[in-house]
Amino acid sequence: MNGHVSGYVKSVRHGQCLTIEFFHPQSNSLPGNLLMELGFQIHAAGLDDDVRVILLRSAGEKSFCAGASFQEMSKIKTAREGEDFFNGFAHVFNSMRKCPKFIIARIQGKCVGGGVGLAAAADYAIALTGAEIKLSELSLGIGPFVIGPVMERKIGLSAFCQLAIDASSWRTAEWAKARGFYSEVHATREVMDESIYRLQNHLSHSNPEAMKEMKKMFWEGTSHWDQLLAERAKISGRLVISSFTQEAIGKLKIKN
After folding, report:
1. Other C-beta atoms within 10 Å of 193: how many?
2. Residue 6, pLDDT score
3. Given pLDDT bands bounded at 50, 70 and 90, which one contains residue 239?
4. Is the pLDDT of residue 225 over 90?
5. What's the CATH number where 134 sits?
6. What is the pLDDT of residue 3?
7. Using CA atoms, how far apart are residues 242 and 244, in angstroms rounded to an integer?
8. How far apart, in Å, do the first and last CA atoms of the chain sit?
9. How far is residue 138's CA from residue 235's CA, in Å, rounded to a whole number?
């Protein structure tokens, strides 16, 4: 566990199931330190022979993840600093795709921006009916560049374009499930958690070598993502220091 005054990432193992939980008081947004720790813990879980399945979840009830930290983005002064920040998301997504264990995502609330990417990078996402999604990047003057490959793989180019272009509209959990973004959508938290427990238990008793080979098959064709996501982070890093983006972030910070 890595404690921090404004958030944390922690891992707890029960049998052969590992739960990785993250938290930030600003709707579970992700500053750079939490991104790096999240990627590290996912990577470490992939190397642990005692772990067969990973559950990725966030604390609280209202938001799964609000994406990139506005406070941190507002302090970025150079394109290199911006690139380094967005490479944090690239690090997490690449850690998730390379991890030889199946990752289940528990989506208990809304997902925005990078939070949408987290849910998409999971191998199986189980959500509540209120877990709406939105890619808000364009409204901030940037774009879902690092998230793009993850989203295209999950829901296809057409649906990704709809989310990316209409950056101010929420899409329902039912919309997301119909396009393969969510694997399951449940009406209550109790039923959602029962389904998660059932799947975790089943996978914890499954052949780890078979699951490893399946994971490689599911992510086939993504070996170039280390370079691709780094290139995309460079685009976001350049745009985030623009006056347009800094003004947009400033207005959002005032509202919050």
Report:
1. 15
2. 83
3. very high
4. yes
5. 3.90.226.10
6. 42
7. 5
8. 28
9. 13
Q: Which domain holds residue 241?
A: 2-251
Domain membership flag for residue 256: no
The residues, ordered by sequence, that sit 6+ positions from 140 with a Cβ below 8 Å of its Cβ are 245, 248, 249, 252
Q: What is the mean pLDDT of residues 57-67?
A: 95
Q: What is the pLDDT of residue 253?
A: 60
- Residue 104 predicted with pLDDT over 60: yes
Q: Which residue has the tokens 């003057």?
A: 141
Domain count, the chain: 1
User: Which residue has 């393969």 as its token pair?
Assistant: 180
The label of the residue with tokens 């809304």 reads 110
* Region 56-77 average pLDDT: 95
For the whole prediction, is pTM greater than 0.90? yes
Instruction: Pick the closest to residue 34 from 17, 61, 59 (CA basis).
Output: 59
